[in-house]
Write a structure and sequence with these properties.
By secondary structure, the chain is mainly alpha-helical. The chain has 2 domains: 66 residues, no CATH class; 47 residues, no CATH class. 49% of the residues lie in helices and 5% in strands. A two-stranded parallel ribbon has the order 1-2. Strand 1, helix 2 and strand 2 form a beta-alpha-beta unit. The mean pLDDT is 83.
Length: 119
Amino acid sequence: MRTDITPGQTSDYLGFDRVMDNNLPEPIVLLADKGYDADRIRAELHSRGIRPVIPMRKSRKRRVGLDWPLYWLRNLVERCFNKLKNARGVATRYDKTAESYFGVVNISSIRLWIRHLSI
């Protein structure tokens, strides 16, 4: 999972470049919500060989298809975020610095991962 912090009023597609510039392995598919439906994002994903699975906004003039069975897997991602937000420090962001907030997110993620491995 790739994470980054942006101001609360920042749109999703503005944080896309910061998250995708990590030095992690390239994904094969990007499952995202309508906030990432922009021609620029779709073009960049296609140029990098990544398959975008992003539903269209209602205002989109050029229609784009969607692989619904694959998009339904996004439910797993949303449930992961929901479980992360069960940690009070992640949901409310009481930390004053980005580094300490990242620490809380990382600790909560490790806790979820360990819990998943022990099942």
